[in-house]
Amino acid sequence: MTHMTATLPETLEKAATVEFRGLRREFGTTVALDGLDLTVRPGEFLALLGPSGCGKTTALRMLAGFEHPDSGAVLVDGEDVTHVPAHRRDAGMVFQSYSLFPHLNAVDNVAFGLRMRKVRTAQRRARAAELLELVGLGDKGERYPHQLSGGQQQRIALARALALRPRVLLLDEPLSALDAKVRLTLREEIRRLQQELGITTLFVTHDQEEALSVADRVAVMRAGRLEQCAEPAELYGRPATAFVAEFVGTMSRIPGELTDGTVQVLGQRLPADGEVPDGAVDVLVRPEAVRVHPDEQGSARLVATAFLGAVVRATVRLADGTEVKADLPAHEATGLGAGTAVGVSLPERPVLVSERIQK
Amino acid sequence: MARRLTLWRWIVLGLAALYFLVPLGASVIFTVDVPGQGVTFDAYTKILSTDGFLTSLLLSLELAVATIAVVLLLMVPAMVALRLGAPRLRPVVEVVCSLPLVVPPIAFVAGIATVLKWGPEYLSRTPLFETFVVIQDDSFPVVLVLAYVVMALPFVYRALDAGLRAIDVRTLVEAARSCGASWPQALVRAVLPNLRGALLNAAFLTLALVLGEFTVASLLGFRPFAVWIYDVGGSQAQMSVAVSVLSLLVTWALLLALAGAGGRNRTASSRG
């Protein structure tokens, strides 16, 4: 759509480290954060991912200074900022809902922070124009928020957040109010901008695809705690816990028997990952790891197929009633209709096991 | 069917117009048509020269300005804080602010009069005695401002509440704060400009209230505009009606000015 060619090299000099240390916060009886420890490296794009109510937004707001922890500390570059008020935090923030000031046009919105810092009019207008150029809206400076689309408003909010050259950029689900296409282009632009500026960025989202596609590392949270913080590929390929495995991507559970570090599943014996006592377990498998082939003697039945473009996602019911999702290349799926008898197998690789969930 | 409906609408409109316009027209005719002299505007020209007109009108306007300033300084920070900090207290504040509608002015002024009588006797040896004297100063009775602030609470509360509902106060304040604005700056630079319509509404309702208030001022023995109209009416019937018509026109002019300002606001926000 638009290309951001302008650069602001002066922002590069001071990428900050952010540390959360044992953050704890309760709202009445609900525990929003239950001892969160997390370190964000300088210049890193870190996504905080989790279901709603997992505390990811609370953590972000604590870094912004809008919430205060019951215990624990927030450190920026090793300096404790837990008790620094929000307007002295040096953190730019983009909000979920449209947060532009309705009474100001785009230029004045971007220049708002500079006005608070008493920068001279000519100087701040020049800086604002430069930032609008950076987000690809150089020609929309005189427009008011109500004259701009949702995507344009979020770009201006991004420019406003960057105006004061903050040490940290905070993004609180900035794309969730936008439609699918705008969301895609804007997230790529945010990523490119972040890399150009090299600014430490925290990005809160509940959309795992969004998190995996833009972030350097993804921190998965659950019930106020960190489940796993890893690079997207590792998170997807080697999830540390069953929760991460099922939250990130699609995962099927197949019953198996664990003995001495190997698991008996679908008539195969495979090495097992995961700290679970021997006995009845569930084997966690991704759809692309499950192989399905037509087999007249097979005890499994194809229940449904969904065409996803390059692949067909098949739902297979095993003899014991368990449903498993499998991705087949589209050409292999022709001729496989609902009710076909099929055989199911797994590749000879270690599999993730977790405790059996009773249904 | 549709035609009959339109007909009914015109009939209702006509009846309502008669109800409002006949007394108004009668008032105007009464002031300009003097028996035996034909049409004359003497009643209106005499207003300016009549003793007490200018002082009482100025007093009323001064009281109005002071009341608006006090009630807005009191209510705007309170309601913003309420929205951000303690949304659960809102029903309580709403009830408290609506109380003046329930208590009749006559009971209200009786209470004030009692306190004003009791206070100086009881406090005669303390500096507070002076306070009681000062707030009853005839040239600018502060006690009336205090009373009017209470009486304006229900209107101001409702006007501001409607305005605050229309904007996302929390996000605006937080956006301003993350841009380096302190609390007062966030309030003045980010919230107040977006409450312009609500502030104008609140100011106008308060102005109308103060200009027309009679009971409290009269019973406490002060002489703002409404009391002056009543006093003049006793001796010069024609002129008191002329003054009423004039004050009605002034009030209308203010209302139209406000509607103009508010109207611009509405069209601006509806485009989004």
From TrEMBL, chain B:
Signal peptide: none annotated. CDD domains: TM_PBP2. It is a multi-pass membrane protein. Pfam families: BPD_transp_1 (PF00528). One of its GO terms (cellular component) is plasma membrane. Residues 57-258 form the ABC transmembrane type-1 domain. Belongs to the binding-protein-dependent transport system permease family. It is found in: Cell inner membrane; Cell membrane. The chain crosses the membrane at residues 7-32, 52-80, 92-119, 139-160, 198-221, 241-261. This is Spermidine/putrescine ABC transporter permease. Keywords: Cell inner membrane, Cell membrane, Membrane, Transmembrane, Transmembrane helix, Transport. One of its GO terms (biological process) is transmembrane transport.
